[in-house]
Design a protein that fits this description.
By secondary structure, the protein is mainly alpha-helical. Helix content is 85%, strand content 0%. The protein contains 17 helices and no strands.
């Protein structure tokens, strides 16, 4: 009887988690596809634009993921309140999340506007700095709605209503692709704006997805009952500081992980345009596949939070480990794709038949081989973070991330890349080492957190 019950629980939790994870992962994929489409379009403008775009998009992505991760605190707080049947608390959390999105979105806009100055301090080529600055000033207009969208996405996901998110995000991605083409090349009577047009297209897409989700929430009968847009002027200190205390460690963890990749991009820039362009191809591809386990991670947070709201520790354990397992299985599959099809992947970005591009093609193939190795550990570590976030355990994972990504990953990568003269290959092996350490320690942390909960 116990075996049958366990199997039933297992299948039930897999179904519940996939119900959340598939739309959320799809939404993350669609959102990341904006960066993918931007990169492909930059490649159409040549190696120089692709290399400069690596600096600009890397800087934007670092801020975007840091900000949306900080706002991810809305998810565990709202899902726990939802699981405990406290709708008014859910509404308070979302309203204060919108406050927080504005508070962090405005300074991020200024940082993007002056991003070329920050890039110059990091010793990049002047021609790359100029193009990256043009892109950043255009896309800066989209960071504020991106923060608002993150809050609303976490709200509808906490209520197990994730499907509109993927529909809206896919529509936004399709719009971005068309707008890229029109504004970059000057079609339909618009001027040819080059890389600036790519930035403006992305900003317009981000505004469109935010406004579409607002309209959906106002239209949907269940979501409308939470009245999250009423009394927005009311500041509730208790809820706001709960969000900050939970979210700041999440944001810092995202910043140190994303910062590792961003700083590696700047180090790649010191190795030349060819290395930087190859790095952008491999990194953008890895970032695209990473969006699926990131979506699984968000779903895992919701499921763990809902189970804890119902005081079900064993259900939280099951949700966490299923999330980690699904994420790991997907990334094993992606690693095999990277390993067996590198040429086909590079061909998405550059004309591999053009002899001028051959050095970039060769380097990108090598980096994709290394990315194939760390796909598994990357998936495990982000899902483990999501499981811990459901327990509102964010400070220790933050410290683990700082140690694994910067103390181990960056240090070993810098040593391999510059002291052992392995260049970009050495830097990428450092990334793999740091992610492996994070995956191991974070999974152990989750198992220990469960033991403490069950003893209580």
């Amino acid at each position: 009887m116990q075996s049958t019950l366990t199997k039933s629980q297992l299948l039930g939790e897999i179904k519940a988690l996939l119900f959340l994870a598939i739309p959320l992962a799809g939404a993350q994929l669609a959102q990341s596809a904006t960066g993918f489409v931007d990169t492909v379009m930059m490649g159409m403008l040549g190696q120089q634009t692709l290399a400069a775009g690596a600096l600009g998009s890397g800087f934007f992505t670092a801020l975007l993921l840091t900000g949306t991760s900080l706002l991810a605190a809305v998810s565990p707080l709202a899902s726990t309140a939802f699981g405990a049947s406290q709708p008014q608390e859910v509404s308070r959390v979302v309203r204060q999340g919108l406050w927080l999105s504005v508070i962090i979105g405005l300074p991020m806009t200024l940082l993007l506007w002056h991003g070329s100055t920050l890039i110059r301090w990091l010793g990049q080529e002047e021609s790359n700095i100029e193009l990256a600055g043009i892109y950043l000033r255009a896309i800066a207009w989209g960071i504020l709605p991106a923060m608002g969208f993150a809050v609303l996405r976490n709200f509808v996901s906490a209520l197990s209503q994730p499907r509109p998110v993927i529909v809206i995000t896919i529509c936004g991605t399709l719009f971005n692709g068309v707008a890229n083409y029109v504004l970059m090349l000057g079609k339909l009577g618009f001027p040819s704006l080059g890389i600036m047009g790519i930035g403006y297209a992305s900003a317009l897409s981000l505004w469109g997805t935010f406004l579409a989700l607002v309209i959906y929430i106002l239209w949907h009968s269940q979501l409308r009952t939470y009245q999250i847009f009423q009394n927005l002027q009311r500041f509730e200190a208790r809820v706001f500081w709960d969000l900050v205390q939970t979210g700041v460690p999440i944001g810092i963890l995202a910043a140190v992980e994303t910062g590792l990749f961003t700083f590696t991009t700047f180090l790649m820039g010191q190795l030349g345009t060819v290395t930087l362009a190859a790095h952008q191809i491999a990194l953008q591809t890895a970032a695209l596949t990473f969006m699926v386990p990131l979506g699984v991670s968000y779903a895992t947070t919701v499921r763990v939070g809902q189970q804890l709201g119902q005081r079900n520790a064993s259900g939280a354990r099951l949700a966490g480990f299923i999330g980690i397992s699904i994420s790991a299985a997907f990334m094993i599959l992606m690693g095999l794709v990277f390993w067996t099809m590198p040429v086909a992947i590079v061909a998405l970005y550059l004309d591999i038949r053009d002899p001028v591009n051959q050095p970039v093609v060769d380097m990108a193939k090598t980096l994709l081989g290394i990315a194939a190795v760390f796909q598994l550990v990357d998936g495990i570590q982000v899902a483990a973070v999501g499981a811990l976030r459901g327990f509102k355990d964010t400070t220790i994972p933050m410290l683990i991330g700082i140690f694994a990504y910067w103390c181990v990953g960056l240090t070993s990568g810098y040593f391999l890349g510059f002291h052992l003269a392995l260049g970009g290959v050495g830097l990428w092996w450092g990334l793999a080492i740091g992610l492996a350490i994070a995956a191991t320690v974070l999974t152990w942390r989750f198992s220990q957190t469960l033991l403490g909960t069950e003893k209580e």
